[in-house]
Amino acid sequence: MSWPASFTRYGVTLKPLTDEMLETVRGWRNDPVIATQMLDKHYITAEEQQQWFARLQCDRSRAYWVAWFKDEPIGVASLVDISLEQGCAAPGMYIYPERYRNNIVPFCVAFALNDVAFEVLKLNLLHGKVYASNPASLRFHLKSGYQVSEIRDDLIYMQLTYADYQTARTPIARFIRY
Amino acid sequence: MIDNKLKTIFATALGIDEAAISDELTYGSIPEWDSTAHMMLVAEIESQYDIMLDTDDIIDMSSPAKAQTIIAKYQD
Fold this sequence. Notes:
The structure holds two protein chains of two kinds.
Chain A: E1 7-9, E2 12-16, H1 22-30, H2 32-35, H3 46-56, E3 63-69, E4 72-83, E5 88-95, H4 105-120, E6 125-131, H5 135-143, E7 147-152, E8 155-161, H6 162-173
Parallel strand pairs in A: 5-6
Antiparallel strand pairs in A: 1-2, 2-3, 3-4, 4-5, 6-8, 7-8
Helix pairs in contact in A: 4-6
Chain B: H1 4-14, H2 35-49, H3 55-60, H4 64-75
Helix pairs in contact in B: 1-2
């Protein structure tokens, strides 16, 4: 199986990040709208991006996809710190076009990513962390079934089990009618 | 013109005062209107108006005025 594989569900297709999409993704990632929400906020140069992508090719502990919606690339979804032995990983995502940022689309992307983690990779626990100063992200995680495990400094650490995810997904996924 | 029922739904879902619900309000314009609040809004609209929205309409519902137009489409 190619790594990572493409995955389509909830009207979203997660396509593995390719060399052709690197500059688009770098442009999104360096936009302050996205960068300010990241733990690492530094400006990423084209060279850094290429080096990062080269290291990614032989790394099975990390997987990055571009999320496509209505034949348009709209953001990035990722799993890092993947441990098949321990059954865990840390998901991440962002949506770039503003028209898709504050509605059902982020849930579509997050659910597709969670399904990859729980159903394809057979993981049993996802880890998340958000800034306490980012209430929208915190609410999104809680709505998606995450439970707070620890609060340290200005970071909130959370965990998501498959069971909690399934319970949280049901009332939202009923609105995804594609 | 936004009807009072819809104003109340918006105010409840977004957790803001009804006085703040105007034609100019759009998502992205206030921090309270995030994706989680949007889904609460959609659930309440479907329940109160007894309609089932297409997902594309859920995405397009970017202001109270737009919501009013979309709801009217389902009531024709």
